[in-house]
Amino acid sequence: MTENRTPEIEFDFKKYDFRDPESFVFKSAKGLSAGTVTEISRQKGEPEWMLAIRLKALDVFLKKPTPVWGGDLSPLDYDAYTYYLKPSKEKSESWDDIPENIKKTFDRLGVPEAERKFLAGLGAQYESEMVYHSIREDLAKKGVIFLDTESGLREHPDLFRKYFAKLVPIEDNKFAALNTACWSGGSFIYVPKGVEIDIPLQAYFRINSANMGQFERTIIVADEGAKLHYIEGCTAPAYTTNSLHTGVIEIFVHKGASVRYTTIQNWAHNIYNLVTQRSMVEEGGSMEWVDGNLGSRLTMKYPSIYLMGDGAKGKILSITFAAEGQHQDAGGKIIHKGKNTTSTIISKSISRKNGRCSYRGLVKVAKGATGVKSSVKCDALMLDEQSRSDTYPTMQVDEEDAVVAHEATVGKISDDVIHYLMSRGLKDSDAQAMVVMGFIQAFSRELPMEYAVELNRLVQLEMEGSVG
């Protein structure tokens, strides 16, 4: 039996790792300044109050120190990035109206086909802007709003202002401030009372250019008794220089509503992915983050759920996969403030070829939040001796009437298991892949079938070392 196995899975990353010649109608100069931020706002025709928020956020970003408690952010050079690139003159509601080079990109990624087969609505972002957006007609007639975030600001200003930066305020952290200063694109979703969307809405984010910063801002509001599932996909080609992705997602789950937010992230290995995701759940509501983190050089992302109302439920289910040169610093935070609230965090991490995965989590039970039940389970699988896995759990329980549990395991692929599978006719690489797929089954079975198949393909590509 060979200790250092190199899988030979026959998959091709060309579906993801390609780039188009750079083409745009406007591109800001490299570097970040008040002039850059003002120009972004001017290009979008925004009201004065939004520009004021952007400039205040820029000041906060410049004053806040770079975090040193997570991954290594020292290579970031903020003067090296382009903060706004407008790829086309306007957003389209038909694929036929999108510029040909962008259309070909999304065709190669299979996005239009996914819309036809599986989705209730789709937004496609290329560089800094949504270039395509659509929603099923029957949902629009029910009052469902599914727009790019700029259109949400323009067409529903009162609703937009009610929710913008309410869960993730400007001062929250350095990179949330950067997003607020430079935000562009993302989704604005409102589902009216009692409306249930039976198949997913999706947004797909693509970075094409080198040294690019992408800063989408997403706001999701599920009114009382509403239900939706939103899926986010992300890719970028590999370059020798770094790019930056800094997103902010705010989700409001009103009384009795239910939201699931699924991310299948497949950034190239030169991307710094620094994201703030936060949700608030009222009485009897339910929030789920299903978070798949593959690709990127460094990911720092900790989806959070504030269980504010009695009987609210929260679940965070995540996988991370780190290979050579990668650090996946991810996890989740759940804050219990309502009574009889329940939460679950399940984290699965896989590391190989000197990759590093870190789980960083928080469960907090406020005084007076009686009847809380919370469970955290972290499982790490290391595929060689050089890889690393860390767990940084924090429990803050200020109420005696609460049950909070934490379990963590670290393991390796057993040579005996591989030997047995090979004795049944499997190649070494296929045997390893089968063990990994079984390890992440709790995650993949939560996905719609077509996305589970795509996830399995991406994991196999990571096993091969083809991603990025």
What does this protein look like?
The protein has 468 residues and is α/β, with parallel strands linked by helices. The chain has one domain (13-301, 413-464). It contains twelve helices and 24 strands. The chain has helices at 34-44, 48-63, 100-109, 111-118, 137-141, 149-155, 157-163, 174-182, 415-423, 428-439, 441-444, 449-464, and strands at residues 26-27, 85-86, 121-126, 129-135, 145-148, 187-191, 201-206, 213-214, 217-222, 227-235, 243-245, 248-253, 258-267, 271-281, 286-295, 298-301, 304-307, 313-322, 327-336, 342-351, 356-365, 372-382, 388-397, 402-412. The model is unreliable at 1-19 (pLDDT under 50).
What is the topology?
Blueprint: E1 26-27, H1 34-44, H2 48-63, E2 85-86, H3 100-109, H4 111-118, E3 121-126, E4 129-135, H5 137-141, E5 145-148, H6 149-155, H7 157-163, H8 174-182, E6 187-191, E7 201-206, E8 213-214, E9 217-222, E10 227-235, E11 243-245, E12 248-253, E13 258-267, E14 271-281, E15 286-295, E16 298-301, E17 304-307, E18 313-322, E19 327-336, E20 342-351, E21 356-365, E22 372-382, E23 388-397, E24 402-412, H9 415-423, H10 428-439, H11 441-444, H12 449-464
Parallel strand pairs: 3-7, 6-9, 7-10, 8-11, 9-12, 10-13, 11-14, 12-14, 13-15, 14-16, 14-17, 15-18, 16-19, 17-19, 18-20, 19-21, 20-22, 21-23, 22-24
Antiparallel strand pairs: 1-2, 3-4, 5-6
Helix pairs in contact: 1-2, 2-8, 6-7, 9-10
